[in-house]
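Structure tokens please, single chain.
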Amino acid sequence: MRYRELLLIAIMATVGSVFRAANANEANVDATFETEVAPLLIKRCVECHLGRHPSGNLLLTTAEGFRKGGDSGPIIDRENPDDSYLLQRIHDGQMPPEKKGLSQKLADNEVAVLRRWIADGAKWPEGRVLDLFERTSDVRGGRDLWSLQPVKRPDVPQLDSTPQPANPIDAFVGTRLEQQQMKPAAAADKRVLLRRLYFDLIGLPPTQAQVETFERDESPQAWDDIIDQLLNSPQYGERWGRYWLDLVRYADTSGYERDQEKPFAWKYRDWVVAALNSDMPYDRFVVQQLAGDELPNRTEASVVATGFLRLGTWNDEPNDPLDYQYDRLEDLVHTTSSSFLAMTVKCARCHDHKFDAIKHEDYYRMASAFWAGPIAARERELLGGPNADELGGTEILGWTDLGPNPPPLHVLKNGEREVPLDEVVPASLSMIPALERTFDPPPDGSKTSHRRLQMAEWIASPDNPLTARVFVNRLWQHHFGKAIVRSPNNFGFLADPPTHPELLDWLADEFVKGGWKIKRMHKLILTSMTWQQSSTHAEFSDYNQKDSTNRLWWKSERRRLDAEALRDTMLAVTGELDLQVGGPGFRPTIDAAALEGLSQKSAAWNPSPAEQQLRRSVYMFSKRGLLPPMMTAFNFSDATQSCGKRDVTTVPTQALVLMNNPFVHGRSSKLAASIIANTDQTQLRVTQLWSAVYGRKPTAAESVLAQQHLETQLERFQQLPATSAQESPSTSDEALALASLAHVLLNSNEFIYVD
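Here you go.
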């Protein structure tokens, strides 16, 4: 081979090795930047130094901004890296700044990363732009947060120590229990299961005859049949509709000082009940509430559904009407994002969300969907809504846009109306990039902007990872007492992590593939052995130490009746309950002492006739400024904002209500009177009382104690003057004694708790 050829080969080899070394070095720089520097800058610095108006005019999301520096000049000294202004500010403890008086000083290892990187030339990969929400850290959620990832149906796990269950729910729960060397509780007995099922699905107890019929039925279809029967009863929608009304802050009045009635709000409540009873697919349930007026096949019912947007408080005399329209937007954004997405979008009204991948602009993107509606102050009698002509119907509390092209909505600096920034381009939220879309302008001839419809379709998309996850989590919560994600209105960074993420995704996928049908999911849960477990467990003490909050679902939770179920059950056991469905709500009798704080006192509240007050609690007129004390004592929702999970408290006032409330005493007297009218035999009276209240016969010991109580009370009443002992001249001492016994039973744990 000639000398020139040998020399050329050598030169090429040398050049190649240089290029390979350079590429390897560049790859190493990229890897170091991505694995150490970028996460640190995003976690500690970018929150303040991003966007068009970065703090100190120092932009830290791009190489150009980093090299340019800010108001104080360059932040890097390439000749003397240790003297760099950036490191000086960090050493002084001025960067990052304190938050709420707490130091945010960088740790030594974090400082070392920056020092090493700067000494090496602060190399920044070409074209790399940092994004505050690109990845999750220990201080903030990114777009890679679990709840924002696509729902992927996991394989049903195979159990090792027990036979494979037929219901996939049991397999997901069982495999976690196996990992902890735990076993689920045994199944509850049939009596307990039936009582639990009745309260779960319709919020009312079974009768003794229904319990005994179920106990005798040994057919394999018995359980499925009773589930179907209850799901198909009108009372199912009333029970589960109440949960939705909590979410959408339902009330019949406007709040604030005047607290005016919102005419026909009850039609929205009836729409929810009817939608659930008809098993309306959940995606359609979502769209109709947000945009029922914009549907091509709109009906009066779909317009009634938009009452969802009218249920918030309404101040007819705000201090600043121009500011108040932005407060109204906040209510709409918060209720929509919390109810359907379990994300706290309202926190981005003034700035990027502190914890979740919700940009400042995202808040205004969602707000823009409502901007074309009657947000601004108008005639007081409209209560913040459209008039009948605009809505296209009378006697409807609904929502519609006032035109197809609303004025521009601007992002507001710090949420202040007087400091508008960029005009908002109506679009979906950016936290799910694969689904992000800009909304189209309205079609020609449209009377509305069609923004709400496009937002609703984005929320109800089968590809939206939040919608199905959030709803099946709510179903689980109300069936089990606690949710898989135990912060049901927050699926963001601060959420309680799911107890069983694979189960949550399997349920969400099953829900969508099943046509978004809710009743189907109820039955899937109710036929699982996980739901049918006893609330007691042979290994209680040991398991309670391992998992005191029952995150592994190793037993059922004993649950107290909520306010509505407690009141309704008292009416049911006395035989007084009026099962009329729908219509205007009734006003319950409220003690005069509860009216003392009102300016108009008794004139502010006129109770309905007594016979109308025997209806289910879901039909109770809900006045924001005057909620019945009996209901609030048992944690009734206050309807101020979306409530995904009521408080469950145990406080002395609950015992006092059950002992002293006139409604409770009235039910005791009514039950006693009806039993006395049936029989004059003491033992039979006791048996009938136990049957009505507990749905079972009394034990021998209970019978003895009951008769002793009756004898003691009868003797006491006979010794009192007639006017002191008797409620009315026609009330016998025997009726008073039996009413006293009935009152004891209505105060018992067996009555107010479900195993």
